């Protein structure tokens, strides 16, 4: 059996609806912002229960815009996790600020107990990441932020379709960033993203800043930039949004089955705890495995592709040298980076695939 990690050829096998909508859009020549972008912003805001959405050309720009909108600048510090995609820290660095890393917990999420120690007089914000499509304890994090008068920017780039005790990732903090990169739960045919906020004045500023600071064609109120989502991608996003609930349901079913089978293989396999009421998107199904590299080769030889997110934590990347971190600074993330594997549980897989994967893993440890 062949189980591929990347499912995009299946996802976009049937493009009839998208092409139909593209043809209609092309006739209107609404190519910069316009009615399709507005329709997407309205619908995704409703889906996430976030008042204001500003779509952008990718998730990294959504993060940069979020940071900028709350005034993050040169010399400021933003607390974030050391186990994330490069963009979480990269967006902070792009604004001239310093990412201050903290360790994660056994769920691969920000360990809120470590936040207070990382705060000093340069700290302006906390950026929790909904890593892998699971979520940190946002209630605890927002309470700490309130105590120290800090802003919360959620990196919810992997969080679209998740749910924490009835609320969407990205609806807890002052502002949040989402990605619609091709391998996210809501994906476009290229790059796409958006910012979400319930704060009207942040929204008004962002809406202008995304589009050169323009009031209208002839006037600007301040110097802005161009961060606009392409309307062709807004059409794709609207099409994908219709399928999102089903996608999340399939991924959750697949993950549940794997959790059950693999937890019997403890201590060779360590599944992260899944707190009650936290529904994940399973952008990444991650667990820790002994003999990680041998297991990955064993699976690959039998047709199962896997990934590692990521083998080197952010603080140990060459790019972080100037921040003076060293090995053992964040022991939990460092240990996990040596044993974690991401297993495909996407919407084009079902129980027979999950059975195949879990049987292989069991056989590997029985050898
Ligand atoms: C946690 C996280 N933050 C930020 C990003 C950046 O998003 P994008 O690739 O759309 O720029 C990604 C996705 O790749 C991500 O997974």
TrEMBL record:
Q: Which residues carry this modification: N6-(pyridoxal phosphate)lysine?
A: 184
Keywords assigned: Aminotransferase, Pyridoxal phosphate, Transferase
Active site located where?
184 (proton acceptor)
Statement: the UniProt record of this protein carries the keyword Transferase: yes
GO MF, one term, reads: pyridoxal phosphate binding
One Gene Ontology term of the biological-process aspect is: polysaccharide biosynthetic process
Cross-referenced InterPro entries, in alphabetical order? DegT/StrS_aminotransferase, PyrdxlP-dep_Trfase, PyrdxlP-dep_Trfase_major, PyrdxlP-dep_Trfase_small
* Residue ranges of the TM segments: none
Keyword hit for Transferase: yes
Which family, according to UniProt? Belongs to the DegT/DnrJ/EryC1 family.
PANTHER family reported in the protein's UniProt record: 3-OXO-GLUCOSE-6-PHOSPHATE:GLUTAMATE AMINOTRANSFERASE, TRANSAMINASE
Can you say what this protein is called?
DegT/DnrJ/EryC1/StrS family aminotransferase
Q: What species does this protein belong to?
A: Candidatus Pelagibacter giovannonii
């Amino acid at each position: 059996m062949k189980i591929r990690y990347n499912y995009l050829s299946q996802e976009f096998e049937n493009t009839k609806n998208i092409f139909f909508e593209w043809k209609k859009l092309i006739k209107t020549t609404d190519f910069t912002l316009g009615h399709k972008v507005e329709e997407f912003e309205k619908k995704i805001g409703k889906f996430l229960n976030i008042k204001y959405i500003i779509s952008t050309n990718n998730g990294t720009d959504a993060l940069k815009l979020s940071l900028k909108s709350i005034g993050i600048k040169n010399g400021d510090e933003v607390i974030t996790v050391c186990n994330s995609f490069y963009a979480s820290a990269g967006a902070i660095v792009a604004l001239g600020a310093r990412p201050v890393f903290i360790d994660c917990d056994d769920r691969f999420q920000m360990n809120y107990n470590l936040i207070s120690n990382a705060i000093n007089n340069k700290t302006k914000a906390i950026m929790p990441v909904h890593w892998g499509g699971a979520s940190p304890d946002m209630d605890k994090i927002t309470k700490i932020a309130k105590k120290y008068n800090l802003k919360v920017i959620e990196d919810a780039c992997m969080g679209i379709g998740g749910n924490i005790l009835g609320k969407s990732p990205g609806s807890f903090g002052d502002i949040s960033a989402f990605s619609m990169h091709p391998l996210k739960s809501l994906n476009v045919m290229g790059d796409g993203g958006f910012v979400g906020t319930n704060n009207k004045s942040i929204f008004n500023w962002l809406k202008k800043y995304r589009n050169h600071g323009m009031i209208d064609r002839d006037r600007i109120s301040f110097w802005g930039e161009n961060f606009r989502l392409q309307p062709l991608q807004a059409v794709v996003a609207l099409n994908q949004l219709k399928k999102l609930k089903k996608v999340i349901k399939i991924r959750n079913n697949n993950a549940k089955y794997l959790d059950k089978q693999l937890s019997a293989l403890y201590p060779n396999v360590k599944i992260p705890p899944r707190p009650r009421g936290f529904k994940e998107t399973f952008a990444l199904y991650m667990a820790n495995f002994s003999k990680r590299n041998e297991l990955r080769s064993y699976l690959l030889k039998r047709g199962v592709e896997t990934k590692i997110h990521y083998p080197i934590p952010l603080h140990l990347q060459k790019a972080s040298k100037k921040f003076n971190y060293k090995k053992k600074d964040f022991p939990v993330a460092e240990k996990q980076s040596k044993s974690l594997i991401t297993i495909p549980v996407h919407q084009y897989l079902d129980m027979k695939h999950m059975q195949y994967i879990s049987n292989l893993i069991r056989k590997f440890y029985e050898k």
